[in-house]
Fold this sequence. Notes:
Elements: E1 2-3, E2 7-8, H1 12-16, E3 26-31, H2 45-51, E4 55-57, H3 64-68, E5 118-122, H4 132-140, E6 144-150, H5 167-186, E7 192-195, H6 198-209, E8 213-217, H7 222-237, E9 241-245, H8 267-273, H9 333-349, H10 370-374, H11 380-390, H12 406-428
Parallel strand pairs: 5-6, 5-8, 6-7, 8-9
Antiparallel strand pairs: 1-3, 2-3, 3-4
Amino acid sequence: xxxxxxTTQKTPESSExxxxxxxxxxxxxxxxxxxxILPTHFFTPSKTTQLFSPKNVKIPPxxxxxxxxxxxxxxxLSQPKLFSKKSSSSASPLQNPLSLNPRLPSDPSNGAAARRxxxxxxxxxxRVHDNECLTTANNESMSVLPVYCFDPRDYGKxxxxxxxxxxxxxxxVVESVTDLRKSLRARGSDLVVRVGKPExxxxxxxxxxxxxxxxxxREVSKGEAKAEGKIEAAMKEEGIExxxxxxxxxxxxxxxxxxxxxxxxxxxxxREKVQGLKVRDTVAALDQLKGLPSRGDVEAGEIPSLVExxxxxxxxxxxxGKPSVNGxxxxxxxxxxxxxxxxxxxxxxxxxxxxxxxxxxGANFSCKISPWLAMGCLSPRHMFDELKKxxxxxxxxxxxxxxxxGMNWLMFELLWRDFFRxxxxxxxxxxxxxxxxxxxxxTGALA
Length: 447
């Protein structure tokens, strides 16, 4: 900033006659030089000349003395960092599939950057432990609105006449959502439940509470990716940010030593590339959550029954009227944690696994935890951490040798689960950007 000397400007009339009661007005001319503050390459010369030409500003004589002592030097101003080496957003989901137009810093300590209200959309992540989406929303927002939608398109009959969601799975989902609501209420929050299309329900919720953003875990199937696209379009029209997280696999998507488009199409190649890759630490469950937004007065809503979802509840009963074997699987994070602890205790007392026995898996050669992993009631990383605590030797998801104990074998099976989710993400998230080639993998037992 350069300050020109103060000069007295006279009009033709004032040069002829001077009124002693109205002395001439003193003016000062101030020139603004942006080149000393912003890098010269930030603006093109033509636009710089047009937009930032010097301006004349009239200053009353009472403050001219103060201006005379003002001195600014470009050396005392630090040039702002306009571009970072690593962009936080990308037009291509292959380069950064977890972001969509981020516009606020992620540092929750910056009070000025705190969001007024954030919606957390629960899908296949029905838990509070190791839930980066929920925890981040809580840290970055003044209020949080957890929402779960029973999408009518997921229920009813398919074109072939079968139930899109059978009664056993639907019952498991209802129980998991019920358990999640209890956990959130115990932490000072709640779970808003609606039956409807998410692209409609969530936009209405966002308008009602004045939400700044929608936080959600990204999914991988074609139908789920299509639903995300509809949500993005609807939220974009309302100026609401959509921020994605990843929490469905043992290894984090951003930690893979290759881009998603370079995901190997066979399990052996995938296992070789992730050899020695470190599993991220789990995100601890918060003891207390931010309250619901005060604006909008949104009601929690009722969790639908099987009848309301168009299913026959008697289908989950055996012929004698008692719950069938499949019906004995109770959904929810609470049940998942109890089963994991029980399984870890059984693993601890089992002898090392030999070539000819799978005794640690029980009669059906399974840990029987898959349903809770599938619905996100249990985090694979939390499962990994809990089994490490009781392991008598070092366990790894990418190394397996004959003679390892059952826990190490289970980690090997979790890696199979990662492979299928990553290979699905490769094609569903970027169908138009990647030349599809068939994935090859032999059938393996999953956790």
